């Protein structure tokens, strides 16, 4: 991505840590958690790889089309899974955003770094609006007032492992949403 090197490395660290946590969530005893965590781990590691500053490492020309194919396949899987679980629609949008960014990066590496147009492209703007809304909604869901209003405890049941805690999964999704916003802003 195009941007300052220090913020690029912070983005890499955030996405890699999120991907690692999602891999750990795949060990959950809850099948729904495992399925969602796999897609989120792929997204986290893919975003980390994409966020490596261009000043440090320039991927080969074939890398961007490979990203597009990988996340296109993940998007098809998310579309198929969305039939039974609504949350996979968000994965579909995230995968589509990754395909879009990979294709844009393939175009900029083939034609230099100048886009030749001014302003934000329509698709980038729509994705920015979507992920801004997603980040705000996910952030509100993390507020501790919601746990008190339901009359439950913030930690969940005693049988839940730390990987099955919904607030940690939401925090993971929130950090990836913020990272996606940062990546879209640097395009």
Q: How would you describe this structure in keywords?
A:
mainly alpha; 69% helix; 187 residues
Number of domains: 1
Query: Span from first to last CA?
Result: 7 Å
Q: What summary fits the major beta sheet?
A: none
Order of H and E elements: HHHHHHH
Number of strands: 0
Radius of gyration: 17 Å
Principal-axis shape equals globular
Task: Bin the strand percentage.
Answer: under 5%
Average predicted confidence as pLDDT: 82
Contiguous runs where pLDDT drops below 50 for at least 5 residues: 151-159
Specify the structural class. mainly alpha
The number of distinct helices, counting runs of at least 4 residues, comes to 7
- Estimate the helix proportion, in percent: 55-70%
Describe this structure in words.
It contains seven helices and no strands. The protein is mainly alpha-helical. About 5% of the residues have low confidence.
Q: What is the fold's blueprint, element by element?
A:
Layout: H1 5-25, H2 31-50, H3 63-81, H4 88-110, H5 122-141, H6 145-150, H7 166-185
Helix pairs in contact: 1-2, 1-7, 2-4, 2-7, 3-4, 5-7
Short description:
The chain has 187 residues and is mainly α. It has helices at 5-25, 31-50, 63-81, 88-110, 122-141, 145-150, 166-185. It has one domain (5-185).
């Amino acid at each position: 991505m195009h941007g300052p090197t220090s913020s690029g490395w912070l983005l890499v660290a955030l996405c890699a840590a999120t991907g690692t946590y999602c891999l750990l969530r795949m060990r959950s005893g809850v099948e729904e958690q495992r399925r969602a965590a796999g897609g989120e781990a792929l997204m986290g590691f893919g975003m980390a790889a994409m966020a490596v500053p261009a000043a440090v490492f320039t991927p080969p020309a074939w890398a961007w089309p490979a990203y597009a194919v990988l996340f296109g396949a993940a998007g098809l899987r998310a579309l198929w899974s969305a039939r039974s679980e609504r949350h996979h629609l968000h994965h579909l949008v995230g995968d589509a955003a990754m395909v879009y960014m990979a294709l844009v990066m393939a175009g900029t590496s083939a034609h230099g770094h100048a886009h030749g147009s001014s302003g934000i492209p329509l698709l980038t703007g729509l994705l920015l609006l979507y992920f801004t809304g997603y980040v705000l909604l996910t952030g509100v869901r993390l507020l501790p007032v919601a746990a008190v209003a339901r009359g439950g405890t913030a930690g969940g049941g005693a049988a839940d492992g730390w990987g099955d805690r919904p607030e940690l999964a939401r925090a993971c999704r929130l950090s990836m949403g913020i990272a996606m916003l940062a990546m879209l802003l640097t395009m």
